[in-house]
Amino acid sequence: MNSKKSPQYQIKLNFTNQGQAPALQAFVFSKDGKLLGSAPVEKDTAVVRLPESLNGHNVDVILGPQVEDGQPTPTAAALKRMGAYVKPTRYLIEKPQLELDLPIEIFPNWCFCFVHGRLVKRVTLPDGTMAEYPVCHARVHICEVDQFPLVIAKLPDSILLRLRDDILDKLKLYPWPPVPPIPDPGPLRAVEQVQLARLSPMASFSAGQQQSLVALSGVTAVSQIRYQLSNLADIIKIHLCDWLYLWPYFTKSCFRTVEVDHEGRFNAFFAYDCRDKPDLYFWVEQFNEGAWHTVYKPSIGCGTHWNYDCGTEVVINVPGAVACEEPPYDIPPGVTLFVLPYAIGHTPIWGIPAGAPPAPNGWLRADGYLNYESGSSLGWLYDAPFGDVLHFIHDDSYFIPSTGIKYYRYSYRRATPASPNTGANDASWTPIATPLSRGYRMEYSDRLPTYEAYPVGPVTVGAQSGLFEFKPQTPPVRPSDPATVVVREWVHGNLGETAASWDTRSAAPALSATNTSDDAGAFEVKIEVFDKDGNQVMPGASTFRFLARNFDGTTTRLATAAEVDGGAYVLTVQVDNNNVSADLPQPSIGGVSASDDCGFLRYEPGDLVHVRYLAAHPNNHAVFRFVIKRGSNTLSLASTQAPYVETASATAPTDTAPYTKVADYYQRNFTPGELVGSCVDAAFAASLGVYGKATNGWNRLGLDTSRLIAFALAEQELED
């Protein structure tokens, strides 16, 4: 073993003036930003060990804030951003010294910032309640965004002028005409007072900001505009989310990547120039299904935490992440081995309990439909089908796999009345065979943790295909694993993982020019259990039990005979991937809808204005809203009542008479006076929105369409 130490590189600092230098550390980086070595500056000297292979190479010596024990070394980019001193030089073993003459004033006053936060997933459940879950097994990238003056300095003149106009428009300030120079400052002072009076709505701004706004509204020189905008960073930040054209001019430097704990919490410690509060940007990856996925990465303009107040908690809602959910329920007495069909996405499975009570709203009904809360725009939707990709979630006993149980399988078929499931060899079923993996984490005694993937299927065992392995109690040891592994752990429980992923669009594609048959309808999905040889294991007291959830959320029950068929748990899912339809022709008078050369639909006494529109879905799994506005005012007498009308409805109610469906079109006649009101001539806008009900169990699919038209009514001028 070669114990020869690396050569020493001595960095000597000679301060050219009196004063107290901050605690410094010398960092040596390669030209591509790789850290080669570092050491604290003690008694104005730092000694850094560098490899011999570096002899003759160009390096950057950077003097920055001292790194506390246990804290990671900042990157070269992060050090430069915080105002560290950079000295490019060539490293030579025969000349292992660098002497620098520096004034103390070149070093900023560095502050240290503790940033901490947590990742959560806020979910509106199908029953309308809100839940918040922690997000675990994720890593947070912490970045600092350019200081505003740096961005303002590099904006092209055309963008600079656009920004000036936009900020003045936002604040309802407009450039004043140039004031000719005069020797007496009195009138100028008066003009300034008038300008400041225009800022009265901005009383919350500082005096300096108000002065810059006054100057910005009066100057025309680009250099002065640039200077004044640099002083208005805090105001620009408020509106930056709206000004997309500025986003490309911002860059970020990611200085830390930290893992979250089991509660989704993270923290980091870093230094920054005390003269400017840090502007922090976060993006998040999560390990799921055996790979890292970016689950949160907002735009810089909308996602940056400007002027972050060090020490305050940052709470990041990550809708795209998988939440860490612990089983919230208990199991019936005497049950050890079980499989529990739990949910489709966030939609809990009701099943068919004894006595067949109806499913609560928000639960998958026995007939395969769902009543669910869709959000603030539409509210509750009823008799909704499913579509797109469905993620089935189940839980199982800690003791599965066991000596007699190793695999499970999900299969589907079109529901056929009085057609029982005859077992694992029933050819009427199609296995759901989308490949799946389970992620796990390995810790080592000699390195950082790694994240791995364990594939669970599909596999063919014996005569059965499409089988998936129940996840073992602990991740299996691989022959390639090093001896330094100390911990292997799964990153998600069963409720945070997909048991089967079914793309319903292959079984029930939407109607289209190439698919003229309506494939929507009721499907059955079954769950079966198998041993290590591919033999089906029948549920029973001596093998395992299928369980089902109770509405209280804390208990479960044994599956009933109505739910188990041919040794499988069977549930019904209504699938409909069809799109909605909309048509909104121009209104007509006497069968004529074309307007005249002036763009008006002319009316005479006794005329009727005919309004009609189409809002449809092949199976009426949709709702709609129709609105007519005169100017900017909604005409309730001509608009359908909120929140929506079912496309199956024969009439569409308004505050007065309803629209009536005739040959698939809703239609109604209005007198011109009903529409124009106290006006003689009036302009209108009509909008139609048709919204599909289908959900994937997480969210409404958005199989929507809309139409918008404008029309104008004018009284027919009488001829002389």
Number of domains: 5
Task: Output the number of helix runs.
Answer: 10
Q: In terms of per-residue confidence, which ranges show pLDDT below 50 for 5 or more consecutive residues?
A: 174-200
Supply Rg.
35 Å
Please give a structural write-up:
This protein is mostly beta strands and 720 residues long. The protein is 11% helix and 38% strand. Strands 21, 22, 25, 26, 29, 32 and 33 form a seven-stranded antiparallel β-sheet that branches. Strands 16, 17, 20, 28, 30 and 31 form a six-stranded mixed β-sheet that branches. Strands 34, 35, 37, 41, 42 and 43 form a six-stranded antiparallel β-sheet that branches. Mean pLDDT is 88; it is low at 174-200.
Brief account:
By secondary structure, this protein is mainly β.
What labels describe this entry?
mainly beta, Immunoglobulin-like, flat, 720 residues, 10 helices, 7-stranded antiparallel sheet, 6-stranded mixed sheet
Any chance you could write out the topology, listing elements then pairs?
Blueprint: E1 8-15, E2 24-30, E3 35-40, E4 45-49, E5 58-65, H1 76-81, E6 85-90, E7 97-102, E8 110-124, E9 130-134, E10 138-145, H2 148-154, H3 157-170, H4 185-197, H5 207-216, H6 222-230, H7 233-239, E11 252-259, E12 265-273, E13 280-288, E14 291-296, H8 300-303, E15 313-317, E16 338-344, E17 347-348, E18 370-373, E19 380-384, E20 389-396, E21 407-414, E22 430-431, E23 436-444, E24 450-457, E25 459-461, E26 464-469, E27 485-490, E28 500-503, H9 504-507, E29 521-530, E30 545-549, E31 556-558, E32 564-565, E33 568-575, E34 581-583, E35 588-589, E36 601-603, E37 609-616, E38 622-630, E39 633-634, E40 645-646, E41 651-652, E42 659-662, E43 665-670, H10 672-676, E44 682-692, E45 705-715
Parallel strand pairs: 1-7, 8-15, 16-30, 36-45
Antiparallel strand pairs: 1-4, 2-3, 2-5, 5-6, 8-9, 8-12, 10-11, 10-13, 13-14, 16-17, 16-20, 18-19, 20-28, 21-22, 21-26, 21-29, 23-24, 23-27, 25-26, 29-33, 30-31, 32-33, 34-37, 35-37, 37-43, 38-39, 38-40, 38-44, 41-42, 42-43, 44-45
Helix pairs in contact: 2-6, 3-6, 5-6
